[in-house]
């Protein structure tokens, strides 16, 4: 479903991605890990259609992802470091706004169900400006999956969440995984990688350093393998 073909990304005089080759199949849940500056978030933004590669191509279902490819962008949900929420709106008002942008049919029930799923039912009519960091992140997760995307791209989604919110997010990821949604997770949170992902990609210096299945592995193995591949090699 996602094909990254020799992607190079240069910003100014700095080369961030140095020939990123990667394939992610439909329905996979994949973690991308690596040191700061490895190019993880940059690649995710290119995959979301928010950045253009300097060289190479990004294909979704074998079609190039471009800004004018509205149909392709409709199947992608993206949660980055910004929530894209309007702080003077309530959760209901925010999600209604995005439902119109994505032409969601019968949005009211969908909105109520998502607000309940992310644990914000008691705050659904409160302005977002009064929310904690974790509550904003929960609502941003609801925004990212509101239009029922086939691909969900998450950049450090567990950051700033308390344990309850971490558990809620993991349940959302596992529900989508069961449904066949392709989930790509950029993270430093190795325990959550083990709990939710099928496969892990290690990036270093803008290239894929390793690509390994996670079945049967635990957190200690992942820490050890990561240190060997991304830090000491």
From TrEMBL:
SUPFAM superfamilies: P-loop containing nucleoside triphosphate hydrolases
Keyword ATP-binding carried by entry: yes
InterPro entries: AAA+_ATPase, ABC_transporter-like_ATP-bd, ABC_Transporter_VariousFunc, ABC_transptr_haem_export_CcmA, P-loop_NTPase
PROSITE patterns: ABC_TRANSPORTER_2 (PS50893)
Keywords: ATP-binding, Cytochrome c-type biogenesis, Nucleotide-binding, Transport
Pfam families attached to this UniProt entry: ABC_tran (PF00005)
Residue ranges of every copy of the ABC transporter domain listed in the record: 2-230
PANTHER family xrefs: ABC TRANSPORTER ATP-BINDING PROTEIN ALBC-RELATED
Protein's name in the database: Heme exporter protein A
């Amino acid at each position: 479903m996602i094909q990254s073909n020799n992607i190079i990304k240069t910003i100014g005089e700095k080369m961030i991605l140095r020939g990123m080759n990667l394939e992610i199949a439909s329905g996979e849940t994949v973690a991308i890990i690596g040191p700061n500056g490895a190019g993880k978030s940059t690649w995710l933004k290119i995959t979301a259609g928010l950045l253009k590669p300097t060289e190479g191509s990004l294909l979704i279902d074998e079609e190039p992802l471009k800004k004018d490819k509205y149909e392709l962008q409709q199947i992608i949900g993206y949660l980055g470091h910004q929530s894209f929420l309007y702080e003077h709106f309530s959760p209901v008002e925010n999600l209604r706004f995005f439902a119109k942008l994505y032409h969601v049919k019968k949005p009211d029930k969908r909105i109520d169900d998502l607000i309940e799923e992310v644990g914000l039912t008691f705050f659904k009519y409160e302005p977002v400006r009064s929310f904690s960091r974790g509550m904003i992140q929960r609502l941003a997760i609801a925004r990212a999956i509101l239009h029922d995307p086939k691909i969900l791209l998450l950049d450090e989604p567990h950051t700033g969440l308390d344990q309850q919110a971490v558990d809620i997010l993991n349940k959302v990821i596992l529900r989508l995984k069961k449904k066949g949604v392709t989930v790509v997770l950029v993270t430093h949170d190795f325990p959550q990688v083990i709990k939710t992902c099928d496969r892990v990609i290690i990036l270093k210096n803008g290239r894929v350093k390793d690509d390994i299945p996670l079945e049967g592995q635990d957190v200690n193995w992942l820490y050890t393998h990561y240190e060997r591949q991304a830090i000491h090699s």
